[in-house]
Structures are given as C-alpha cells and as structure tokens.
Inverse folding.
C-alpha cells in the first residue's frame, strides 16, 4: 500500500480544509462526521477535526451543533489531559471557543481576548505550519466574524 490508513485519513482532512475555504461548509461538516484513523491522534489531528466541526457548525449558523461539539471536546480534553498535554495554542483556542459559546457566540464580548491570543508572539502561541492546524484558526474565525480584522485594527489604535 502506498499510504497508510492514517495518512489517507489525513488527506481527507486536507480536503475538509479545502471545502471550508471554498465555502462548501455542509460538505466539510458531513465529511467530519465519519470517524477515521485520525481519531487515534487525540491531541493533534482528532483535536483539529473537532475544531473544524465546530467551525463548520458556526459557519452554517448551527450554534446548537457548535455547542455540542465544544462540550464533547471539553470532555475529551479532560480525559486525555490526564495522560498527554495539548499544545498551548490549541488549549487557548479551545478556551476562546468555550467563552464564545458561553456568550451565545457573540464575538463582540470576546474580541479583546481574541486580540490578546493572536497578537501574542510567544513561540508556543503562534501558528505553526505543518501541524494539524493547516490554516490558522483566526482565518477560519474571520469567515464567521468578518469584522475580526477591523476589530483588531481598532483595538490596536
């Protein structure tokens, strides 16, 4: 076999990223409902497939689905954190989504926290290519909240 099952499932996640960028949110979300080999990489690819599911729910205005996704991710992180540690950036992104959920997904309530998170230049917080976070989270967030870039500018000013 040319590629392992794990590698093939990663390729399918790449396709999900492409679907989101193309605006094909329903297609991306449906692809994420299929559990694959990536679910064995709980602190990397599975974590990000769950984040992608949450983001597709938000992009489709299915806030109930996003809330359930966040709650499920919270339970999984609680279980896994007893044995493994998540990247600092991943933890901060999850915390941001949790706060966003608690505020009814109203971005305005969280823009200062978001700005702090993404303006932080600490090495463990900045986006790194070649991880399961293929496209920076803030780029996806900007799809849902287009005012993100203007908010960052107004906070700096």
């Amino acid at each position: 076999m040319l590629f392992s099952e794990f590698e093939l499932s990663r390729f399918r996640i790449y396709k999900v990223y492409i679907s989101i960028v193309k605006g094909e949110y329903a297609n991306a979300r449906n692809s994420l409902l299929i559990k694959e080999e990536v679910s064995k990489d709980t602190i990397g690819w599975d974590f990000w497939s769950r984040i992608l599911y949450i983001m597709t729910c938000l992009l489709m205005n299915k806030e109930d689905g996003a809330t359930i996704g966040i709650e499920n991710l919270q339970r999984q992180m609680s279980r896994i954190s007893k044995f493994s540690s998540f990247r600092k950036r991943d933890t901060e992104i999850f915390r941001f989504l949790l706060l966003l959920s608690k505020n009814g997904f109203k971005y305005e309530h969280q823009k200062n926290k978001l700005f702090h998170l993404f303006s932080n230049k600490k090495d463990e917080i900045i986006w790194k290519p070649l991880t399961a976070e293929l496209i920076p989270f803030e780029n996806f967030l900007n799809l849902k909240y287009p005012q993100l870039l203007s908010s960052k500018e107004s906070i700096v000013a």
About this structure: Residues 151-157 have pLDDT under 50 and may be disordered. Residues 18 and 28 are 8 Å apart (CA to CA). Residues 5-156 form one domain. Helices lie at 5-21, 25-32, 45-59, 63-80, 88-102, 111-119, 137-144, 148-156.
